[in-house]
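Example record for the data management plan.
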Amino acid sequence: MDRGKKSGLAARNNRIYLDFKDIIRETALPFLPAKSLAKFRAVCRDWRLQISTPFFAHQQTLSCRSTSGFFLQNRGESPFLISVDTNSCGVPDPSLRFLPEPVDIKSSSNGLLCCQGREGDKAYYICNPVTKQWKKLPKSNANHGSDPAIVLLFEPSLLNFVAEYKIICAFPSTDFGEATEFEIYSSREDSWEVAGEICFGARKVVPKSGVHVNGVVYWMTPTSVLAFDLTKERSQFFRWYYNYGILGAFDGKLCNVYATGGSIRLNILANTHTNTMQMGSQTSMWLEKKTVVLDSKIVGDGAMSCSILHVDNNIMVVHSGERTFSYDFKSRATKLLSGRAGINYRCFPLWQSRKIEYGHCMSSSRALL
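Corresponding structural encoding:
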């Protein structure tokens, strides 16, 4: 009577094995950048539905965590995008013409850009260049100056399905001479708030130098590094031995990177309290992590006079003459990215994220992207 029927055990075992197309859809697609996903939507109906769900967008943001390209912009000019891999990286409108006015990019974080309008009240905008979605932020409470020291913080979390972000701005105090104050925008509250902390000292913050590492935002000054702890809302200065180079994040720590004598030195912050240690202590504030020599066959004579635009765990971007190069830390390969750049161009990394395509709306006036 049961001939031709599978036993219960056999039926259960059969469910263990998925079709190859299902394996790709469930486990491989979330690791692809947004440009590739846009193409794969046309493969079949199942893939289109999978890619279109809010949960998939959340999963892809957590899985696709590598830098795929860079926005370059000289202040007052239109931005443009250079891709690490042109087959997988791209945005519909690299000039950001979908925004309501011409803007200058101020910061980027995990697929989002923080931009500032050039006219009128110089409004701030948050946008996702992949989906062309944007939000105009409310007016700040303080005067941030003509070139604000903005840092955007967007950290996707497995436990936080809502796309929340913060903006931190260090600005010159108008109430106290030679002091720096901090204002924070929270997308959860959709409002700005000036922190109670005031950092005294005649040190001008370098606007384009801001970087976030493990809950602390750092900026360069001409003679030191200014740190602002977001949790404690406390600030401090510590010694800065180099009046050139940039700050970045490497191996989960703050790093400084600078070019000298044909090589590039990468130092990580090891201890911020060396000034309080006993005299004669051998503990160093900065420890050398890497020394990089670019491929002279690709860079040419420019290897002796290059400047650093960006550094993270995976890649470093270097400017020389009118050309932009990348250095891959894993493969140690030097690559020409673009022949269009200048010494004053700012560099903003791009992650191919689809997360903000699916906004969270708390109310009509407090909608996220």
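Summary line stored alongside the record: The radius of gyration is 23 Å.
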